[in-house]
Amino acid sequence: MGKTLNGLAALEVMSGGIVQWEKAMALFREAERHYLYEYQSKDQQSHDDEADNVLATSPSKYSITKENVEQMTPHRAQLIINVRSNMGELLRQRGRYDEAVGTFRLALDLAQLDVARKVNNKSEPTVLTNDPGPDERRNAIVELLVQIADNLVSAENYDEAAISYEQALRSHIMFRRLARDDDNQTIPGLQTTTLPSAIMASGSIPLDVKTATTMEAAIRNNLARTLAQIGQDKLALEHYEAALTIKRQVGGDEHIEVGHTLMGMGALLGGPMRDFSRALNCFKEALYIYRFSLETLSGVHGGDTFNYGGAAVGFYDGESAEEISEYVSNATKNIGLIEAVLLGERDGKSGRTP
Predict the structure, then answer these.
(1) Which residues contact 218 (CB under 8 A, 6 or more apart)?
(2) How far apart are CA 330 and CA 155, in angstroms?
(3) Where are the beta strands (DSSP E) in 219-313?
(4) DSSP secondary structure string, 94-156?
(5) In Å, how far are 20, 76, 116, 148, 204 from 194, measured between CA atoms?
(6) How far is CA 288 from its chain centroid?
(7) Residue 219, Cα to own-chain centre: how many angstroms?
(8) Cβ neighbour number for residue 54 with a 10 Å cutoff
(9) CA distance linking residue 165 with residue 162, whole number of Å
């Protein structure tokens, strides 16, 4: 029943329109209720029945406790996480970013509890063949933290967005380490409450190039852009440089994603950091990459989309000729602006006047 309701909600979303949006939200909530109901106490069921009558088209309001989660299979927990994520995405599409953040955080709470019981050797129901594995359950936490951060950026709440991106980055690195020796041992200092609070240590986040992933590159790039918005220029540059290193390693020096990060670095260096020479180098290299990409697109893919093969496939989206042409234009404009500034500085030092 829950899967049917979730599927019907997805169809309503595809139909579009405010009426379909309201139907979709109501169906998502009913699916969530179906998944949760058998694990709740009588008091929880009564409270949630009352909430359902009043808030049929509102985001998730159903209560869930650690005890509820410990009774569930990982598969059931994942179904509820997915429904709550769908609600959050629906709210994002409607521009209701604050409510989307709240709904994604409810999904995150469940994902944290689900992973914590496994990490800390808590007993859990018999594992079924359709249960998600440890990596999938951990990755859900990282993805939800990124979705929360993305919505906070859309709401222009950059301080909290930076915190969420950093939590996502630290989580991803810690979980990647766990995956290498997945023995389900207790992590020192890790409690069964919230995982991010245990991994938000102070200090920089070092880059391990040998084990870095494209997900890490994406998170670091977004974190850098957000930190630049709140004046954390030095730290933003560190994350841009780390993202750039990963992207070069995965896709090569001429991958279009390398160009995107170079553009971000150039804007940071040529703006608040006032390092115009380095900024110019970034923009020039990005321009070369975009032109190379455009030439490759027209010669190999017949004007459809551009992408590299190998390890980059599945992470970096293909880009159209129109999009790449816009990137070329932006890089060219930025080069002109920086060159004008550098020329003015040289004229000033030599005492020349226009």
Answers:
(1) 243, 315
(2) 25
(3) 305-306
(4) TT-HHHHHHHHHHHHHHHHHHHHHHHTT---PPPPTTS--HHHHHHHHHHHHHHHHHHHHHTT
(5) 35, 20, 8, 15, 21
(6) 28
(7) 6
(8) 8
(9) 5
Sign of CA dihedral 73, 77, 82, 83: positive
Whether the Cβ atoms of residue 112 and residue 195 lie closer than 8 Å to each other: yes
CB atoms within 10 A of CB 178: 18
Instruction: Give phi and psi for 352, each to the nearest 5.
Output: -75, 150
pLDDT digits (tens, 9 = 90+) for 158-217: 999 999 999 999 999 999 888 876 554 444 333 333 444 434 445 678 899 999 999 999
Here the tokens at position 313 are 């496939």
Closest CA to 144 of 94, 97, 81: 81
Torsion of CA 93, 95, 101, 102, to 10 degrees: -100
On the CB side of 154, CA atoms within 13 Å amount to 18
User: What's the rounded Cα separation, in Å, for the pair 296 and 280?
Assistant: 24
Place of tokens 């608040």: 272
* Residue 264 scores a pLDDT above 60: yes
Q: State how far the alpha carbon of 39 is from the alpha carbons of 31, 35, 188, 196, in Å.
A: 14, 8, 30, 26
Please report, for residues 112, 129, 165, the alpha-carbon distance to residue 311 in angstroms, rounded to integers and kept in the order given: 29, 29, 24
Residue 259: which of 230, 235, 215, 292 has the closest Cα? 292
pLDDT of residue 133: 85
Q: Could you list the beta-strand ranges (E) of the chain.
A: 305-306, 319-320
Burial string for 288-304 (b: 16+ CB within 10 Å, else e) reads: ebbbbbbebbeeeeeee
